[in-house]
Design goal:
Largest sheet: 5 strands, antiparallel
Helix content: under 10%
Oligomer: single chain
Radius of gyration: 14 Å
Strand content: 35-45%
Number of helices: 0
Distance between the termini: 15 Å
Shape: globular
Structural class: mainly beta
Order of helices and strands: EEEEEEEE
């Protein structure tokens, strides 16, 4: 996709969170996503442990991200962003209905980075 509007044609995320890759830069190992959440959270006991960094911003709605070691919770509302370094265990504890995120993934262990 060469262009679009981030706020248009949002998929229905009532059954499950929707993650859409908007673009990627395979040589640079960067991926940009639009994430639509509608009250979803990570399953109990599940932690993301990514080999790459992730920068997220909430553009609409709200969310809470929990981190492990050290334990902390970050609350995000419209305009709030947070950088999650590679290997920082985290989970999504809560999202509000209609939450819209922008996520940028990159860096870290490029051998395991999931860019097609």
């Amino acid at each position: 996709m060469d262009q679009g509007n981030f706020f248009r044609d949002l998929p229905d995320a009532s059954a499950a969170e929707i993650i859409e890759e908007l673009t990627s830069f395979p040589g640079d190992r960067v991926r940009i996503e639009r994430i639509v959440s509608d009250g979803q959270a990570s399953p109990d006991g599940f932690w993301y442990d990514q080999a790459w960094g992730e920068w997220v911003v909430v553009l609409r709605g709200g969310a809470e991200i929990a981190f492990d070691r050290p334990a902390e919770t970050v609350t995000l509302g419209p305009g709030d962003w947070h950088y999650i370094p590679a290997r920082r265990r985290h989970r999504v504890d809560r999202t509000e209905p209609g939450t819209l995120w922008l996520a940028v993934h990159g860096g870290g262990d490029t051998d395991s980075f999931p860019v097609e």
